[in-house]
Specification:
Blueprint (H helix, E strand, L loop, with lengths): L9 H9 L2 H12 L2 E2 H7 L5 H13 L3 E8 L2 E7 L1 H4 L2 H21 L1
Antiparallel strand pairs: 1-3, 2-3
Organism: Spiroplasma chinense
Keywords: DNA-binding, Transcription, Transcription regulation
Protein name: Helix-turn-helix transcriptional regulator
Length: 110
Amino acid sequence: MRFELISECPVETTLNVLGNKWVVLIIRELLKSPKRHSELKKSINGITQKVLTSNLKKLEANGVVYREVLSKKPIHVEYSLTEFGKSLENVLFSMQKWGKELQQSVKGQN
């Protein structure tokens, strides 16, 4: 974990780790199971190759994601969550619960 991610405010620290919506969606997919780069790209609607690669590198540098080279020829790389990354499951669960309640509230207003 990089020191610059830590803030005096716990919410800001969490946002520093999560960074953006793509990071949250990457973590969501890796909570289901380890995945290859192509599997992640396919499962996250709208993410570009460049954005996925950039975010995976940041997550690896921050100790959230582990990158394992399974074979060299042809190269086969798989991404999985570290124990630290898995600790974000409750954060994502809370986001999912809140989002679902919002969706139901909006549907009820129409």
